[in-house]
Structure formats: C-alpha cells, structure tokens
Write a structure and sequence with these properties.
L-phenylalanine transmembrane transporter activity, ATP-binding, single chain, ATP hydrolysis activity, alpha/beta, 295 residues, binds adenosine-5'-triphosphate, ATP binding, L-valine transmembrane transporter activity, 6-stranded mixed β-sheet
Amino acid sequence: MSTDKPLLTVEHLTMRFGGLVANNDVSFEARAGEITALIGPNGAGKTTLFNCVTGFYTPTVGRLTLRHPAGKEFLLERMPGYRIAQLAGVARTFQNIRLFGGMSVLENLIVAQHNKLMRASTFAIGGLLGFPSYRKAEHEAVELAKYWLERVRLTEFADWEAGNLPYGAQRRLEIARAMCTEPVLLCLDEPAAGLNPRESAELAEILTFIRDTPSPRGHRTGVLLIEHDMSVVMRISDHVVVLDYGRKISDGDPEHVKNDPAVIRAYLGEDEDEDLPPEVAADLHMPPTAGQKGA
Ligand SMILES: Nc1ncnc2c1ncn2[C@@H]1O[C@H](COP(=O)(O)OP(=O)(O)OP(=O)(O)O)[C@@H](O)[C@H]1O
C-alpha cells in the first residue's frame, strides 16, 4: 500500500441542485495503488460525487485535489471535464455501458488513445505523411490495446463488433478502454451491475490487477469504485467511504465499515427487524445465525 500523499483529496464537497443537497460537506482521501469504494443506499449521492470528480458538475462548494506521482497538482473543481480526462489523467466508466457499439473491440481501444495519436500526428499532417514518430505512436497504441485486451481476457474477440459482445465482456472492455488512456485515477460507476457471480469474480480479479500492477508507464493507478455488490466491495477494497443522504457517515477499512452501527442503520433503516437484501447482508455485519461470511 502507498504511504505517499493521497492521490485524490476531497475537501468539504457540497453539491446542490436547487433545494436538494446531493453531497453535503463530504471529505475523504483516495490513494494510488488502492481501491477506494464509495457505497451507500440509492440516492446517497455517489454518482453526483463522481460527476464532480470527473468534471461533469462543478461543485457548489469544495476542493478536489488530484496529485500526480511526479508531484503536479490539479484542482479538479476548476477544470472542465475534457481537461480532467486529458491533462489530469482521470478516466471513468458509466452505470450504463457507453462503448462504440459499431466499432471493433480493438478499435474501441485505439480510439481511446486518440489524444496521444493526434499529438503524434501533429494534428493530421504527420499521420497523413506517415512520419516515423506517428508510426511509432500508432504501434505503441496497438501494443497498449493488446496488453489490456489480454488483461481483460478479450484477445480472441479483438475483431468483434463491440456491440455484439456478451454483456459481461462489454463491461470488461469499458475498463480496458479507460485503462488505455493510462489514467492515474480510474473511476468506475457500478462495474458489477448485471454481472453473474463468475463475471463478478473476474471483475474483482481485473480490479486487483489494476491496483497491484504499475501501469506500463510505471505509475500506480488509484481506483475509485461505486458499487452496490457488497461481496465485490468488501473483498477487494482497501478503503470504504459510506454516504447516506449526501453526507459521509463512515470511512475506514472494510472491517471497520461493515461493523459500523451507522452503516448498518443506513442500510436497514430505522426498523432493524427488517431484512437486509441478501447481497448486502452477506457482507455487512449481521447476526451469525443468519450465515454471515467469516470476517
Ligand atoms: N442533475 C440532477 N438534478 C437534480 N437532482 C439530481 C441530479 N443528479 C442527481 N440528483 C439527485 O441527487 C441525489 C443523489 O443522486 P445520485 O445519483 O448521486 O445518488 P446515488 O447514490 O448515485 O444513487 P444510485 O445508487 O441510485 O445510483 C438524488 O436525490 C438525485 O435525485
């Protein structure tokens, strides 16, 4: 685990939509080489927080600092979304898959490297004339795409139209596409949604690989993960931040969070006789007689 300064520092983030406070004075840190999960009941403000980090929204109040390994700092709340992706090195996936369905799997990964290729082509001329620097960049882009295809086990589907892939494979392709931008921070919005248990286990393996393996450029990627599948969250997260009604109600390692009465109350509601949804109960604290997974 990293002991350096945090990769992302969120300070007093508040996001209001008219009278609705979707994020209310939220502060936390996320580190490179770690998976930080953002959990909480529906409507807790998780996606809104992601949208602030990735520049889709400008926070009403608050500071979002991203620190690169070489020390450069970016104040994300002051940057438009496309600059956050291009310059700050933040990549994201969405709750609803957003691939280029009519392009091949490989093409999706090359297009993700568009900025790098455009620079190498000196904005088209070098590419048209086949400058060596462009050919080198093109070769490297294909190699990086192949590297991530292999990691997400899609090499054999490289020529398939992305839209024809099975659902679980599309989810993995989205992650590979984000990783082809060589981000320092990867933001994943419910990557396990709709996956079966085998696919969820594969996803967990991919995310731990991303966390544990330096990128081909040599930096450690930090992962910010929104996920409702508690079995995935509790198994792979280093750090869990819990939101409820826009506020942070807990922050710590999975063991701390799953035993935190405030978290249990948020998921159970006031009536503690009510049953937790099985997928949540299995990984949050619950009476041993109900078959709690060993901590
Ligand atoms: N653009 C918007 N305009 C108005 N209200 C919004 C907007 N985006 C989100 N909200 C509201 O902010 C609150 C938090 O929503 P958000 O989508 O961030 O929650 P969430 O924790 O991601 O929920 P889920 O787990 O269901 O995806 C909700 O009450 C939602 O209706």
